[in-house]
Write a structure and sequence with these properties.
Distance between the termini: 52 Å
Structural class: alpha+beta
CATH class: Alpha Beta
CATH superfamily: 2,3-Dihydroxybiphenyl 1,2-Dioxygenase, domain 1
Number of domains: 1
Helix content: 10-25%
Strand order of the largest sheet: 2-3-4-1-5-8-7-6
Number of strands: 8
Radius of gyration: 18 Å
Strand content: 25-35%
Length: about 180
């Protein structure tokens, strides 16, 4: 009998809920991801003193950024080694509902892994844990799913930053006015 046979059912993964990255400039980030890449901004919130914004890549799947004042940025070719700090904060896997989130939590505990209680962020609920490499992981389900539908930048359930960056104000007024230019390294 496999050790996994003693665990609760496997999670019903649906994709990446969000990949959380760090930026020192949320305004430029909004302008690039919405204006340049064409992703929709689907939610904004505050995580303590940091802005936390979510950009849709597909239904239920987003890339998110924490704004960390003074964070150092750098350029490096994809897949290339570096001796610098990495800009990945954590990866959040998407689950379909609260039951699946609770089942995953039970499975992690049964496997001897540390895991948080369910954390309510308003529009998503999550649990946090790590992999054996120390990579911070999260599993989340959308309580109010801002993906797969038009954005309502005045919806306080999804756009809760009380002092949004200028690019969000522009989106509320009809669209991004100015976009950053980037270059390859």
């Amino acid at each position: 009998m496999a050790v996994t046979d003693e665990l609760p059912d496997q999670p019903r993964w649906q994709g990446i809920n969000h990949l959380a990255l760090v930026t020192p400039d949320m305004d430029a980030t909004v302008r690039f991801y919405v204006g340049v890449l064409g992703m929709r901004l689907v939610a904004t919130t505050m995580a303590g003193p940091m802005r936390h914004y979510f950009f849709e890549m597909g239904r239920g799947n987003t890339v998110a950024f924490f704004e960390v004042a003074g964070a150092e940025t750098f350029s490096k070719a994809a897949g290339g080694p570096t001796d610098r700090a990495i800009q990945l904060d954590h990866i959040s896997f998407d689950v379909p509902d609260e039951h699946a989130l609770e089942q995953l939590r039970k499975r992690l505990l049964a496997a001897g892994s540390e895991v948080t209680t369910v954390v309510d962020h308003g529009f998503i609920r999550s649990v946090y844990f790590t992999d054996p490499n120390g990579i911070a992981l999260e599993a989340s389900w959308w309580v109010v799913d801002g993906t797969g539908r038009p954005s309502d930048y005045n919806d306080p359930a999804l756009f809760g930053d009380p002092d949004p960056v200028p690019a969000v104000v522009e989106l509320r007024s009809g669209g991004i006015i100015d976009m950053p230019r980037t270059r390859l390294t």
